[in-house]
Amino acid sequence: MKVTVQVVTRSDDGQESLREVACVKCADLTPATLGLSLAEGKTILQAIQEVVVEWQMQAYLRQQQRCPQCGNLRHSKGAHHTIFRTVFGALPVDSPRLTHCACQTHDTQSFSPLADLLPEHTTPELLYLETKWAALTSYGMSVKLLQDVLPLDEPLQAVTIRNHVFTLAERLEAVWKQSLYKRIPYVICGARLRTDLLDNRSLAMLLEISKGLIY
User: Fold this and answer.
1) 208: left (phi over 0), alpha (psi -120 to 50) or beta
2) Which domain holds residue 162?
């Protein structure tokens, strides 16, 4: 038996497009062949992710083509190749640069809409999973766990997770310092945490798995 997976996208004006993203050949039923394998599931999820991200980025870039203040067309200054990392794979994209409109003053002559929207090139959900696992085990073991369950087609380095954790820890520590004087409690996984009872290191270790502050 052959199973074909197709994705249908429908625009706001009702136009539809269909794309085949995966084809799975199913062998005779045995305990080992029941349903999709982990590898097949990863492949399908990554293929669907590519379609969804491509559609989202194209729609967003169309919105950025005109100045939001005066409506004038922003001219293109070329594009550069970059990669955005998601929970369902690293996706290569062409990130265009657009000129700023002359109706207002800007520090630079051009900008990259995608780079401004996603400066870390990593989705918050993947950052959350990286820091959550890094808070529970070593960086090296976190890499192995993530590569086992997620369709990460490029090698994930322990130092990458370490850098992400350190960046988030600095952000959380800044929030902690502000809230300490305001006596505002944090909410971690549904449980309230009294910030005045923890030192910096303990608080950072707990808060780095707080999904709300990563998004």
Assistant:
1) alpha
2) 124-214
pLDDT one-digit tens code per residue, 144-183: 888 888 887 667 788 888 888 887 777 777 766 665 544 4
Q: What is the pTM of this model?
A: 0.70
Give 151's strand partners: none
- CB count within 10 Å of CB 4 equals 9
Which residue, of 62, 84, 117, is where some domain finishes?
Answer: 117
Largest CA distance in the chain: 67
- Asked if 95 and 154 sit in the same domain, the reply is no
| 35 in the same domain as 105 | yes
Q: How many domains does the chain have?
A: 2
For residues 186-192, average pLDDT: 38
Q: Which two tokens stand for residue 110?
A: 């051009």
Are 128 and 214 in contact by the 8 Å Cβ rule? The answer is yes
- Enter the tokens of residue 208: 């780095």
Question: Per-residue pLDDT for 214 more than 90?
Answer: no
Residues 34, 87, single domain; the answer is yes
CA distance 189 to 130: 16
Taking CA atoms, 212 is separated from 2, 118, 188, in Å, by 42, 17, 9
**Residue 169 shares a structural domain with residue 97:** no
Please check whether residues 23 and 129 belong to one and the same domain: no
Q: What is the pLDDT of residues 48-78, one digit of tens each?
A: 999 999 999 988 999 999 988 888 899 888 8
14 and 85 in a common domain: yes
